[in-house]
Amino acid sequence: MKAYQKRLAIVIGGLAALGVATALVLNALNSNAAFFYTPTQVAGGEAPKDRAFRVGGLVRQGSLQRDQLTVRFVITDTVREVPVAYTGILPDLFQEGKGAVAQGRFDAQGRFVATSVLAKHDENYMPPEAQHALDRAGQPTGAAR
Predict the structure, then answer these.
(1) What is the Cα–Cα distance from 118 to 102, expressed in whole angstroms?
(2) Does the pTM exceed 0.70?
(3) Average pLDDT, stretch 15-23?
């Protein structure tokens, strides 16, 4: 084998290894990604039924119910609502009427079971996705996005 053929074989082998590594990384990222959905999108069936995702908006006033470590509450975008069940300790800043994002999935009965709950960190902050959803929900139907 000549020198240029060896170099060509090394370059082709390197590109193939890079392609395989890239495919594995992208597959891992895609399978672990939790996409954000609004309660309106969840009610519309846009959220996945078989994998984890995030739902965010405001915690509806009067919806917080505690039973030892299990907490039930409702996240709303002022148009639709998603009931959430979470077992664990809520963040200190979590409260009714404030922004929150819950990550989880639907169980066999179709209820959203959260594995983590995030709350806003100061009185001016809301996750950008949640703020955008609330802004869109406030627009009249058919308004430009």
Answers:
(1) 6
(2) no
(3) 92
Two structure tokens written together for 89 = 């300790």
Query: 126 to each of 52, 121, 139, how far by Cα in Å?
Result: 21, 8, 18
Which amino acid would we find at residue 94? Answer: F
**Measured between alpha carbons, how far is 23 from 133 in angstroms, rounded to an integer?**
33
Strand 53-59 and strand 36-37: pairing?
Answer: parallel
**Closest by CA position to 133, among listed 12, 46, 32:** 46
Burial class (CB in 10 A: 0-12, 13-18, 19+), 129: middle
Tell me the percentage of the chain whose pLDDT exceeds 70: 85
| pLDDT tens digits along 21-36 | 998 888 877 666 668 8
b (16+ CB within 10 A) / e for 7-43: eeeeeeeeeeeeeeeeeeeeeeeeeeebebbbbbbbe
Encoded tokens for 39: 């309660």
Q: Are 99 and 79 in contact (CB under 8 A)?
A: no
Residue 144 confidence (pLDDT) above 60 = no
Annotated binding residue 121: yes
